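Lab channel / #folding
Pinned by the channel admin:
"Please post every new chain as: sequence first, then the structure tokens as a reply. Keep commentary short and put observations after the output so the thread stays searchable."

First post following the new format, from NK:
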Amino acid sequence: MKKAWKIVLITALCLLILGEIVLGVGLLSGGSPDRVWETASEYYDFQQISDFLHSDAVQGPLGQIGLQIP
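Reply from TO:
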């Protein structure tokens, strides 16, 4: 099981590094983070997601196990 988690960790780190490289190249070549935000905002209502995460439906069960979303 230890070996499986090590593989998952290495894979996640590789994907994170690759994502940072892609983001850096995109910004260096004239890309705009605002365009990405606008595109994501078309499909997802971030205010509604935030309201849900801070609602009692989520905070109640998390509070019972000692966790809290800031």
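NK: The chain has a mean pLDDT of 85.
TO: also worth noting, The chain is about 80% helix and 0% strand.
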